[in-house]
Amino acid sequence: MGNITVVGAGTMGRGIAFACALENLPVVVQDINKETLEDGKQYIEEQFQKSVQKGKITEEEAMIRRGNIHYSISMEEAVQNADLVIEAVLEIMELKVKIFKELDKHAPKHAILATNTSTMSPTEIAAQTNRPNQCIALHFFNPVPKMKLIEVICGLETSEETIEKSFQFGKRIGKECVRINEFPGFAVSRMNCHIGNEAMNMLMEGVGSVEDIDKAMKLGLNHPMGPLELADLVGLDTRLRNMEYLHQTLGEKYRPCPILTKYVKAGHLGKKTGRGFYNYS
User: Fold this and answer.
1) Residues near 42 by beta carbon (within 8 Å), at least 6 away in sequence
2) pLDDT one-digit tens code per residue, 72-95
3) Which of 105, 165, 177, 235 is deepest in the core (most CB within 10 A)?
4) Please, are residues 121 and 182 in contact by the beta-carbon 8 Å criterion?
5) How far apart are CA 218 and CA 224, in angstroms?
6) Residue 231: pLDDT over 90
7) First CA to last CA distance, the chain
């Protein structure tokens, strides 16, 4: 796993890239949108500065690690030397399938292809390639630099060698890995989406305010963040896509709360737009 390529420079992609770079791994960050790529570059630079300020690395070490990161809008160029490619784009199956077909075409034959999906089937995505045994889901959590867990989700044809290498990669960047057999929502997203959706139903029913529902979960169950605060952080549009997929695959108990659909239609997508269940302006 000497060379890592991250496809998608959004919230998750840039976080994954920084986590790799911080551990001195060569990383290429690819995105077709120049503005998103530039935003990702700025985020990574800010994270390096914070790491230096907190004493995690020296300024000299930060300079060396910066030199290990490259940015590209070309998929073919970005993956040409990759040992591991991590796709981190929107939770849209058609988009992921399209990207994996391109990755299969351009990445070296030995390269592992991973999707950062939080709910979708790595088996279905892998089936569009000529290397399903080398495809896997590596589900990172937001914010990636702080969150210690990677869910390693095995598709139907994922090889033991691919799983073992994925665990080695996780350890290399300081993460803990858990092995999960594929099922819609995996482990964390399946439970988390259900909790968040129930919190939204409670809000809609007038059980409590946003602040009090979140405080109850934080102080009563020792959750570090309330479910509504977390939904805002993830992005309400992303949460809605996840809920729609889980509703389709797991049934009625995952039907998205109407208030979630309403907020997304209004463009209130959470922290990234300045307004969701909380007002960030």
Assistant:
1) none
2) 999 999 999 999 999 999 989 999
3) 235
4) yes
5) 6
6) yes
7) 42
Residue burial 146-173, b: 16+ Cβ < 10 Å; e: rest: eeeebbbbbbeebbeebbebbbebbeeb
* Structure tokens that stand for 1 in this block: 């796993």
152-179 tens-digit pLDDT: 999 999 999 999 999 999 999 999 999 9
Phi, psi angles (nearest 5°) of residue 15: -70, -45
DSSP bridge pairs for 86: 6, 114
> What pTM value is reported for the model?
0.88
- Round to whole Å and give the CA distance between 257 and 226: 17
Cα separation, 204 vs 209, whole angstroms? 9
Mean pLDDT of 178-205: 95
Instruction: Please give the full DSSP string across 179-248, using - where no structure is assigned.
Output: EEE--TTTTHHHHHHHHHHHHHHHHHHTSS-HHHHHHHHHHHS--SS-HHHHHHHH-HHHHHHHHHHHHH
Per-residue model confidence as pLDDT tens digits over 134-157: 999 999 998 899 999 999 999 999
Hey, what's the torsion of the CAs at 66, 99, 191, 209, to 10 degrees?
A: 70
Q: Are 88 and 7 in contact (CB under 8 A)?
A: yes
Q: In terms of Cα–Cα distance, which of 93, 74, 71 is closest to 13? A: 71
Task: Establish how many alpha carbons lie within 13 A of residue 257's alpha carbon, considering only the half-sphere containing its beta carbon.
Answer: 21
**pLDDT (tens digit per residue) in 238-258:** 999 999 999 999 999 999 999
Q: How far apart are CA 115 and CA 99, in angstroms?
A: 10
Give me the numbers of helices (H) and strands (E) for the chain, helices first please.
12, 8
